[in-house]
Write a structure and sequence with these properties.
0% helix; mainly beta; twelve-stranded antiparallel β-sheet; Porin
Length: 230
């Protein structure tokens, strides 16, 4: 986030959350003096069927983020007002979890994330699909290999696409985006390896109608170990 000569010195964060057996909903607002205000609301509902041991379940969620410059508009590109709305459906059965999601960003500006991560359900490892005007579609599938005696081993594949992106200053179209993520992980919960987590990430990001230098292929490996103190 780029600021002009003056610098904000006040941040106010407020929120509330409510959780029941089927519902999970909440609202958060953070305000940065003379810079921006971001309001986020999410509603999540577990459909009332199945969901028992070995039974299918369906969960539906929707969220909305409203963001706008405030006060002296110290943030670059101000004044502006924009939003990002997204929805998802999660279907699970045994050890499979399938997710489908869509999102839309307002034409006013890109979404800024000065103090956190993307809230959109379409967000992926690299791409948040949060540029002005962007319409995104996302699907992912994960599987837990516990039934094969491989407790702690999981695999994830995700795909996302973003289009209709515009340059807020010129109105010119920006390249469409496609991202493919592969993410196997291993995290045993008992035995001598308890506390270890190993994850490998493969990212293939392609921007349509742009030069090869704008594409990205990346491997990442993450190893965490929780050291027992007693």
């Amino acid at each position: 986030m780029a600021l002009q000569a003056a610098r904000p010195d006040r941040i106010l964060i407020t929120g509330l959350r409510r959780r029941t057996a089927s519902w999970n909903y909440g609202l958060t607002n953070y305000w940065i003096k003379d810079t921006l205000n971001t309001t986020y609301v999410e509603i999540d509902y577990l459909l009332p069927f199945g969901g028992g041991e070995g039974q299918p379940s369906l969960r539906v969620s929707i969220n909305d983020l409203d963001q706008r410059s405030v006060g002296a508009d110290l943030i670059a590109g101000a004044p502006y007002q924009t939003y990002q709305t997204s929805a998802r459906l999660i279907a699970s059965y045994r050890n499979f979890v399938l997710t489908g999601a869509v999102s839309r960003v307002g034409d006013g500006a890109d979404i800024r994330k000065p103090f956190g991560f993307s809230t959109a359900f379409t967000s992926m490892i690299v791409t948040s699909f949060n540029q002005a005007g962007e319409r995104a579609y996302h699907a992912d599938l994960s599987y837990d290999f516990a039934d094969f005696g491989l407790e702690g081993l999981k695999a994830f594949v995700g795909w996302g696409s973003g289009s209709n992106i515009i340059d807020r200053d010129t109105g010119a179209p920006r390249p469409d985006q496609r991202e493919l993520d592969l993410r196997p992980s291993f995290e045993p919960h008992r035995g001598g390896l308890e506390g270890l987590r190993v994850e490998v990430q493969y990212v293939d990001l392609h921007q349509i109608d742009s030069g090869p230098s704008d594409d990205l292929t990346q491997f990442r490996s993450i190893v965490n170990y929780l050291v027992p103190l007693r």
